[in-house]
Amino acid sequence: MASDLLQSIQASMPGFSKGQRAIARFLTEHYDKAAFMTASKLGATVGVSESTVVRFASEIGFEGYPQLQKALQKLIQNRLTSVQRIEVTSNRIGNADILETVLTGDMEKIRKTLEEISRPDFEGSIDSILRAKNIYVLGARSSSALAGFLSFYLNLILENVRLISTTSASEIFEQMLRVGEQDVVIGISFPRYSKRTLSALRFAHDRGATVVGITDSQQSPMAESADFLLPARSDMASFVDSLVAPLSLLNALIVALGLRKREEVSKTFSELEYIWDEYDVYEKNDPIAGEQETR
Predict the structure, then answer these.
(1) Burial category of 189 from C-beta neighbours within 10 Å (exposed 0-12, middle 13-18, buried 19 and up)
(2) Whole-number mean pLDDT of the chain?
(3) How far apart are CA 162 and CA 204, in angstroms?
């Protein structure tokens, strides 16, 4: 309902009471501010009672005001520009401790992700990845960091992983030209959703590949193409998106795959440790040697 919420409110305006019209006007004109107001605060701002605000939410089809507030917050995730996000965040945080506010918010996102994620979809994703002939991983813009992280570790576990470059739409489809029914495509996108990622997932779905969508909610446009949907909370934090919960989800995915391929992973890392040591990849932390050097 979030995508057409404002149009729905506008269309219903003639049937509202005077107080409801005041609420409706404020929501349509200042939805970015209303999304983080309590019912009491919203009522005081427009000059009506808290109970009038609660009844208004029910009048337009919500169970209560919290559900309306969530719909508004979802709406601004997709609509606000980066500049508007900065202003909204300034209003939300005010003079509060920024470090505590942001880190506490991230912990809450992980908790909600754990509550909301589908265990069957998580296990189905694992099974599909392990059976796949080829695994394609893609994420554009800020999600490219998550895609790179996931593909890096998947390459240590599996032999058939391809990270898709998303610098141009044509390059995406060229890299996915041979995707088919035996393949898995893992797409990562959060508001504001990347059109390139969505188009690539539709392409993969049409070609019969199994699509794993990692996104923010069941209402994400990625759900249309995904066989398995793994939602992770990613509410905005100023002009940046919080990727803590999505990264935690990817950690769980990698660990689960690693445990299912335990013997192969142990062999791979044994070989890597030899290579890393032979070619001096990592700084050696040898307290005894260090002590001798300082004498």
Answers:
(1) buried
(2) 87
(3) 14
Q: Identify the three-state secondary structure at position 227.
A: coil
For 47-64, what is each residue's pLDDT tens digit? 999 999 999 999 998 999
Task: Report the distance separating Cα 101 and Cα 93, nearest Å.
Answer: 7
With CA atoms as reference, report the closest residue to 154 among 259, 258, 275, 268. 258
Q: Residue type for 193, please?
A: Y
178-188, pLDDT tens digit by residue? 999 999 999 99
Asked whether the whole model's pTM tops 0.90, one would answer no
Alpha carbon 58 to its chain centroid, in Å, reads: 29
Q: Is 265 exposed, middle or buried (0-12, 13-18, 19+ CB in 10 A)?
A: middle
In sequence order, the 6+-apart residues with CB closer than 8 A to the CB of 169 are 196, 199
User: Over 90: is that where the pLDDT of 238 sits?
Assistant: no
Instruction: Write down the residue that tokens 């979809």 correspond to.
Output: 121
Kindly report the backbone phi and psi dihedral angles of residue 72, in degrees, each rounded to the nearest multiple of 5, phi listed first. -65, -40
Amino acid at 270: S
Q: Contact 84/43 with Cβ under 8 angstroms?
A: no
Report helix, strand or coil for 161. strand
- Where does the chain have alpha helices with state H? 5-12, 18-29, 31-34, 39-46, 50-59, 65-79, 82-93, 98-116, 119-131, 143-157, 169-175, 195-206, 244-260, 262-278, 287-293
d(C-alpha 139, C-alpha 257), whole Å: 20
How far is 240 from 237, CA to CA, in rounded Å? 5
